[in-house]
Each structure stands twice: as structure tokens, then as C-alpha cells.
């Protein structure tokens, strides 16, 4: 009987390989001895392997001696083997425990404050106010009430409308939205015409002031006068501030050229990683990556006190794009690019998609036919005679 007490290690799993002339008989003897087995497989006539708990090793060894069976531990896994391997390394285990406690203790503090502002309020101002409140790198997380902090920052700054403060890992992230002044209204009654701000075909016209000089069906160009800034009968006209809404059919066009061949980046499944903690701006590596990959993708994870950088090996291949897929994907993108530029009042009438192949590229073209108001005001410049009369006066 071995002097080693396997009964203490109940969570260790071993894979045992046996060689005997009657492997079935050996398995039956194990079951009669209340030895739990799993994943029993036959390799050949005399060889079988199975998984069992480490605590049954003594029984298996005794039965093997009585039946003249050769046994071999093929693999082992579980926390028990880590304990067995390091049971005499008390200093190492003690150091790991102390290191873990130090890491846990340091993770209860804030080591970095990230402030995001907009236009008028600077991060320096907020950082100074936080310092006055006793908040800075090295402060314990338990001393920070983020909701109370948000109220104090808003109270101390009249230009701030909204504050969001959150603790994420060893960081304090503060986002700030500033108040926006409403635009002022300016009333302008100076004489002006209504002109076309772009080319189009007139569909309908609604005039509130001035004299319309175009009608439905007319084609106009950018800068053409649509409503003249004058009213009254012939011989008794006077200038006014023309106002009108002129709905016309216009066109918006976007196009793009996409190379037919492209380099595809595919991950091979191989990876390497760095594990480290960052204390006062310095990195303390727990695991250092060799990173022998020629081409790779890098991913950075900062969700806790322990940070991770993972390198994924990438293989580059030259591939050819499918024309239909290119047309569908880029047509939708071009359509979205046009839509972003349009006003909410614009009505889309038709969408035209055209794709052609030129040399080693696909050219995708999207045209939107829309109805929109093309009216804009243009001040009426005084005539030369009026300027001369004003100068004489």
C-alpha cells in the first residue's frame, strides 16, 4: 500500500491506461470494488483506458498487482494535482496569496480620472473642483458617492446641464454635457427676391409676398429669380420682402469606386497575450507575450485591475469581390450618405442604382429623385441711378 493518502484529494481526475490479457475482467473487478469509472474506451485487444477519481488509485494499483496488469497514468487534471505539486513550496504559495491580497487591495482605489467635456468647460476646471472636493488618484472607491458627486459638479457650474460619473475598474469616468443657448430671432423686412438655391423642375409654388415669375413645369437653374420682390400695379409698384415656398424636383447623386481585388485578413487561431497591472503609470507584467507573429490583430481589454493585451495571428489572402454583394453593400451606404444631408421636409420620389466595371474597379452610383423647397432669399441691390441720387443728397 502506498504511503500517500489519496483519499484527501477527491477532485483530481486521472486517465488510466491498462494492459492485460483480460481487460474486461479487470474492469469488472474495479466495479466490484466500488471504483467509479467514466469514458471507458478500448484501444486494442489488450489495452483499455478510462477516467477515474484520484482517490481510487490505491484500489486500482492493488487489483493490478493481483491480476498482473500494467497500469499507466496517461493524463491528469484538477486542483488536487496543483496542491500535490506545490505542497512543499509553502513560500511560493504564501507569496501568491500575499500578491493576490495586494492586487485586491490596490483594486479598491481609484488610480485614474478620465474627464470628457464639450466646448466651454475644460477638463482642468473639473479636475481642480474634484481636487477641492478631496477626489484624486489614490482615493478609496468607498469614499466616492457618484450621485452626490454629480450634483456637486452641476451645482458648482452654471454652464453644465448634465453630468455622469461612474467607477469602472480602477478608473473614475466623468462625462459632461453643457447648456446650449437658444438662437436669437432676427426680423428682416429688407427688399429681396426669392431665387433658386439649386437646379430643378418646378412642381408647385406658394407665394406669401412678391410676384411669382415661374410656374409648374418650368426648369430653373441655381440663382434664377423665382419670385420678384415687388408688388403693385404697372406704374405703381413698390419693393417688398418676397416670401415663398417653391417645391421642385431635384436630384442628389453619390458614387464610389471599389477595387475588384482586396486583401482578406483571416485569423489562424493562434494567439499570445500580455497580462499586467498598471500602478502609477508603470506596467507590472504577470505574463509577457513573445509575439512572434508577422501579421496580427491586437485587442486590449481593460475591465478590471488586471489588464490584458491579446495578439491574434492573421493570414492575409488576395480575394475577388462579388459584384452583386458590392452593389448591395455600397448602394445602401451611399443612400445613407445622401439621406443624412437631406432635410426632414424632403420627399423621396425615386431611387436609381447603377453599377459598372471599369478596369480593375467597380463604380457604384446612386441617384435620388426628390421633391424639396428650393427657395432662398436674395437682397435686392440698389440700382446705379439710386446710388447716384443718394450720393448727391
TrEMBL record:
Q: Which UniProt keywords apply?
A: Membrane, Transmembrane, Transmembrane helix
Note the Pfam families from the entry: YqfD
InterPro entries noted in UniProt: YqfD
Report TM segments: 92-111
Name under which the protein is recorded? Sporulation protein YqfD
Organism (species): Clostridium bovifaecis
Amino acid at each position: 500500500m502506498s504511503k500517500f493518502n489519496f483519499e484527501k484529494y477527491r477532485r483530481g481526475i486521472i486517465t488510466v491506461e491498462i494492459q492485460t490479457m483480460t481487460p474486461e475482467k479487470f474492469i469488472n473487478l474495479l466495479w466490484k470494488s466500488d471504483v467509479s469509472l467514466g469514458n471507458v474506451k478500448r484501444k486494442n485487444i489488450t489495452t483499455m483506458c478510462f477516467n477515474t477519481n484520484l482517490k481510487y488509485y490505491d484500489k486500482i494499483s492493488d487489483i493490478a498487482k493481483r491480476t498482473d496488469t500494467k497500469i499507466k497514468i496517461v493524463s491528469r487534471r484538477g486542483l488536487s494535482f496543483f496542491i500535490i505539486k506545490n505542497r512543499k513550496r509553502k513560500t511560493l504559495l504564501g507569496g501568491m496569496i500575499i500578491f493576490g491580497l495586494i492586487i485586491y487591495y490596490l483594486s479598491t482605489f481609484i488610480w485614474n480620472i478620465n474627464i470628457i467635456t464639450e466646448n466651454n468647460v475644460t477638463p482642468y476646471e473639473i479636475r481642480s473642483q474634484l481636487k477641492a472636493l478631496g477626489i484624486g488618484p489614490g482615493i478609496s472607491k468607498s469614499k466616492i458617492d457618484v450621485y452626490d458627486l454629480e450634483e456637486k459638479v452641476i451645482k458648482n457650474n452654471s454652464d453644465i446641464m448634465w453630468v455622469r460619473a461612474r467607477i469602472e475598474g480602477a478608473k473614475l469616468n466623468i462625462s459632461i454635457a453643457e447648456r446650449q443657448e437658444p438662437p436669437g430671432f432676427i426680423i428682416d423686412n429688407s427688399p429681396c427676391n426669392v431665387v433658386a438655391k439649386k437646379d430643378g423642375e418646378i412642381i408647385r409654388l406658394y407665394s406669401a409676398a412678391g410676384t411669382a415669375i415661374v410656374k409648374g413645369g418650368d426648369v430653373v437653374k441655381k440663382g434664377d429669380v423665382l419670385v420678384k420682390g415687388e408688388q403693385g400695379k404697372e406704374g405703381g409698384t413698390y419693393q417688398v420682402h418676397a416670401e415663398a415656398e417653391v417645391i421642385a424636383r431635384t436630384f442628389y447623386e453619390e458614387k464610389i469606386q471599389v477595387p475588384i481585388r482586396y486583401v482578406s485578413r483571416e485569423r489562424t487561431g493562434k494567439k499570445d497575450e500580455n497580462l499586467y497591472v498598471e500602478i502609477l503609470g508603470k506596467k507590472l507584467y504577470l505574463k509577457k507575450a513573445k509575439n512572434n507573429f508577422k501579421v496580427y490583430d491586437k485587442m486590449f481589454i481593460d475591465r478590471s485591475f488586471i489588464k490584458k493585451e491579446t495578439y491574434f495571428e492573421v493570414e492575409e489572402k488576395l480575394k475577388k469581390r462579388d459584384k452583386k454583394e458590392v452593389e448591395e453593400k455600397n448602394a445602401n451606404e451611399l443612400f445613407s450618405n445622401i439621406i443624412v444631408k437631406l432635410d426632414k421636409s424632403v420627399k423621396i420620389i425615386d431611387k436609381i442604382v447603377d453599377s459598372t466595371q471599369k478596369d480593375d474597379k467597380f463604380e457604384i452610383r446612386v441617384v435620388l429623385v426628390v421633391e424639396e423647397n428650393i427657395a432662398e432669399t436674395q437682397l435686392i441691390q440698389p440700382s446705379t441711378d439710386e446710388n447716384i441720387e443718394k450720393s448727391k443728397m
